[in-house]
Each structure stands twice: as C-alpha cells, then as structure tokens.
Amino acid sequence: MSVKPSSRNRKLYVSTHGCQMNVHDSERMVDVLGQSGFDLASNREEADFILINTCHIREKAAEKVYSELGRYKPLKRARPDLLIGVAGCVAQAEGAEIFRRQPLVDIVVGPQSYHRLPGMVEKAASGEKQLDTEFPEEDKFDHLPGVSGRVRRNFSSFLTVQEGCDKFCSFCVVPYTRGAESSRPVASVLADARNLADDGVVEITLLGQNVNAYHGIGPDGSEWSLARLIRVVAELDGIERIRFTTSHPRDMSDDLIAAFGDTDKLMPYLHLPVQSGSDRVLRAMNRRHTSAYYRNVIERTRKARPDIAISGDFIVGFPGETESDFRQTLRLCDEIVYAQAYSFKYSARPGTPAAERDQVDEAEKSDRLARLQEVLSSQQREFQRSQIDRVLPVLLEKRGRLDGQLTGRSPYMNSVHVQAGDMLLGRIVPARILKSEPNSLAGEIVLGHEAIARGGNLPNVSLSDPVRHEGVTGVA
Ligand code: SAH
Ligand code: SF4
Ligand code: F3S
User: Fold this and answer.
1) CA-based Rg of the chain, rounded to a whole angstrom?
2) CB within 6 Å of ligand 2 — which residues?
3) d(CA 28, CA 22)
4) 49 lines ligand 1 (CB under 6 A)
5) How far does residue 428's CA lie from ligand 3's centre (Å)?
6) Per residue in 35-55, pLDDT tens?
7) The whole model's pTM is what?
C-alpha cells in the first residue's frame, strides 16, 4: 500500500487574466488539480504551485505575464520546490520562449492541453521542465472532471460549448492561440448543464470564442445550432436564465434572433462586437460584414426582443483608420446606443496580418479612444439611469461589500445591490431600482410583485458548503 509522502494537501494559487473563457478554464484547472490533491491557497505565499492563466490579445495583456513572473522571484528563491506554471494564450503563442525569458517557470501549458496538468505537475516536481502546447487528438472535456456548481457554490456558471475561431480577423491572435473552431456534442453540453442545475446553478452562460457559430452534433446525428441548444437547455428544471458570449455578427442567424423573442429564459442581453463603423476599416479587418449589416442584425434583434440591451467591442487606431473612418464609428454608436461596451487601442500582434501594415500614431489612438469612451460611458450611464424605478428580477449571487447586502445581476447584466439576508442567495427576486452608481445599481426588494414569477422555481440550495474560489482573481 502506498502512503502519501505528505499529510497535507498541496496548495494551488491561480491568477487569471483575459476573457470569460479563461476565467472558466481556471476553474476547470482548479477542478482537475483538485482531483490530484491540490487545495486552493488563500495567497501566493502559501502556494506550492502558482499557475498564471494568461491572455495574448493585446501587447499589454501579454507583457503582464512577465512582470507577474518577475514578482515571484523572491518566493522561488526562498522555496526552490515552489512550482510555477504559465497556462492560456501566452503559453500557446510563445511556448518554450517563456522558459528562455523567465527561467523560473516550470510548466507551460496551452488551452487545449490543461487536462494533462496533473501528470505535468508530477514530472515538474522532479525537476523536469514541462511544455505542452499541442492541439491534442483527444477532447480535453472527456478528461476533465464534470463541471460542478456545488464546489464553488456559484449560482451563475459558465459552460463552454464551442472553442476556437476560423474567422481570422486581421488583428486577432485567437485563431492561433485557441485553434480551429470546434463545437462540443449536444449530449455532453446537456450533461454538464444538468449537473450544474442539480448543484443549484440558476444561470448558465454558454461560452465560446465564436459561440454563435456553434454546430455541435445532436443526439439525432445532425448538427444543432446555438438556438436549438438554447431551447433545450431552457427546458431543464432549475435553469432560469441563459446567456451566451461571444458572438460574431455574421453568425447571428434568424433562428438565434428569434430565440430572443420566444425563449423567456434567454436573457435580453447581446454582446455583439463590431470593432468599427467604417466599411473600409471593417474590410481591412477582414470582419466579413459591413456596418449596414451590423445595424440590420441589431434592428432585427430589437424587433424580436424590444427591451434587449446591446453591448459591443471596438478597436480604434486600426492601421489605416482615418479621422473620417473613426467618425463613422462614433456615428454607429449614436445610432445603436449601447448599454455597455469595451473599447481598445489597436495593438499590433506578432504574426497577424495587420501588424505588418502602416500603424496609426499612438497619440492619435489615445485621442480617439478617449473620444469614443466618452460617448460609450455616457450611453452606459444613460442606460443605467433608465433602469431607475423599474422593478427587475435580480439573481442574487453573492454578498455585497456592505454588511447585510447581497449583489446580483439584472437581466441586462447590471450589478444590483440590495439589502437582503444570506437566505436569499441564489434566488431571483424582484427589486425596484432606486439609484444608479458608477458601475452598479442600488435597489430594494419588492415582495409580492408579479416580477417574482421569474423566480417561481426557486432552487434547492444548500448554504453549508464553504465558498472555495478565492484563488482565482480578476478578469482583464
Ligand atoms: N471572439 C470575440 C472577441 C475576441 S477578443 C469576437 O470575435 O468578437 C475581444 C476583443 O478584443 C475583440 O472584440 C476586440 O475588440 C479586441 N481585440 C482583439 N484583438 C485586438 C488587438 N490586436 N488590438 C486591440 N484590441 C483587440
Ligand atoms: Fe478574433 Fe475575429 Fe475570431 Fe473574434 S472573430 S476571435 S475577433 S479572429
Ligand atoms: Fe485573451 Fe485568449 Fe481570451 S488571447 S481574450 S485569453 S481567448
């Protein structure tokens, strides 16, 4: 009989950068390492293994990895047995180069190989550096423990249904770091969704780099669309809310647009990046659609679901973007009116076509970004203000910053704080919105209001499980 060398479990600290997919991947890495005896550390100092899950989307995001690694030097010097790993999109893009730039790294693992982490950790512990940036034949989802909402006691959970991208926008690294577009089979997505529902999860966000390109094989052998998948997830007892992200305008099918109108559980919120309002720039970006096409998609979606909140992504200062192109982006924003948006200065990424072109002056980019953000922030404030006095169903997800406060989300993704006791965690309650704060709304619970209808199916949640998520930190 073998005896474990140490009586205590080893401790894992995960630091997460990047998109929701990375946040979810970090959770899955915690799960798979949990099976091989790792518990979450509450800080870096007590960790036996520090894993940075990285993002390569813009230069700043990628450079963060090296500054973070530099900060771990004293820890590693004090404890040479401390393992340090780099996962995610920088790992995929830079591979062995990471060992050269920062020799304290023991493990480099790409987004498609992290189910192999337990074996890599054991080998790294015996002093052998580990690199795995393959796109393996086997499906990592078949080798990961099933998703569980219980471990983290989340009421809202991500669920990956699609990964990778074949669109090759000329600025973007994702097709290289995440690989070719692929969809998980319907049956395995549904098995995960059922597990989440059984664990008390009320809201599921279906994730994919190009989630609306979903075309998973259904039980009948045919390819299912995202809309069809959503309609079936909506039938699961306990699941009250469904969201999906991130979508490409070209894949907003009629069926998906219709789902916003006919599937109550699909929340009225659509994140649909457009990047630019200029057709010339959209063409240079290889976005494969015009601004008129985007406007039309939004118009049709609003027809299907008039109260839908629209969110977007923008890039300013793409190579060749003129002042007049940029003004067309401002004009598009004025027409669409966003509830929420993310905007970035173009960042040249090695290996992408646009990086080779004539670049816009940095000061010009900063100026355009400031002007765009002024418009977008004012639209966001206006959207939040428009919620005042409305009674909205709010899914209460966690304790707020203040005593006796819980925080949740409205259907439109706004954070809402209310005074409420822990027994309401995981419930959808009607809340009257009283005030708009910079990044959230303040509300009060209104009992007996018809809005409680959406919370009719209250989940049976045990509140005794400890919250075990402190090792995973913020999103870039
Ligand atoms: N899959 C999603 C989002 C990908 S990355 C989509 O297709 O829309 C998230 C956002 O980062 C993009 O929408 C874009 O606005 C921004 N982004 C991507 N590459 C960038 C780059 N090289 N420079 C600046 N912003 C970038
Ligand atoms: Fe990147 Fe374009 Fe694919 Fe989105 S659609 S992930 S921006 S290449
Ligand atoms: Fe970043 Fe990779 Fe996501 S590059 S945005 S972590 S897919």
Assistant:
1) 23
2) 165, 167-169, 172, 174-175, 209-210, 248
3) 10
4) no
5) 31
6) 999 999 999 999 999 999 999
7) 0.92
